[in-house]
Amino acid sequence: MAARDKFHIGEPEEVDLLTCPICLEAFDSDQRKPRSLQCLHTFCHGCLEDFSANKQTLECPTCRHETALPSQGVKGLPHNFWISNIVVASKPAPTTSGDRKEGEICKVHPEKEVIFLCDHCDVLVCSECVASTHRGHPMTLVSDVLQQKTAEVQNVVRSCQKHAMQCVEAIETIEKIEADLDAQRGEVVAKIIEAREAVVANIDVKERALRKEVEQIMMRNLRDSLTVSRDLYRLWIS
């Protein structure tokens, strides 16, 4: 059964960097821990466990590249710490019981939450900063900056995955060429051995023929010698 028939695999533009492409659940540090295959595609631990049941190799649900499972199974696959760190960084910072704010606090006005990035000064500022010390400076919403940086990170990840797949394909091509060369070498060696055996067999045949010819010549000479000796003996006694 094809991977996309067994699991729901979202298209690249539909899949959030921080969610598993199979179950579409957010990664975490437990059952949804992000783990990477040899092709660098990342899925949660739970889905890979289901997908690799009773298997020695695991076929990537996205690109179909096969990854050999280590002796520990899915637990032995590399943990994608990079994505885990982003998950941790994306969570709201813990607040005290008397603090209502979930965002970062302005260093100049502690009672205010930063909502802008001052493009001119490259610092996070609150609404009062915009109206005072940073009046007239170009501003960008923090949410927009976060969305932009997240998109940039996703683009980098996709680019890395693309280059990784190109490397994997190049390695597979090289391995195929090596296998073909080994096969060709085996064929050449087999032909050399066959030719040598044929030459040796031909020499053996010629050797036997020459031995037989030599024996025939010796027997003929022996008969001739006996005939001459017998004739001479007859002449001598007559």
From TrEMBL:
PANTHER family: BONUS, ISOFORM C-RELATED, E3 UBIQUITIN-PROTEIN LIGASE TRIM71. Residues 101-142 form the B box-type domain. Keywords: Metal-binding, Zinc, Zinc-finger. Residues 20-64 form the RING-type domain. One of its GO terms (molecular function) is zinc ion binding. It comes from Branchiostoma lanceolatum. InterPro entries: TRIM45/56/19-like, Znf-RING_euk, Znf_B-box, Znf_RING, Znf_RING/FYVE/PHD, Znf_RING_CS. This is TRIM3 protein. It holds the Pfam family zf-B_box. It comes from the Eukaryota.
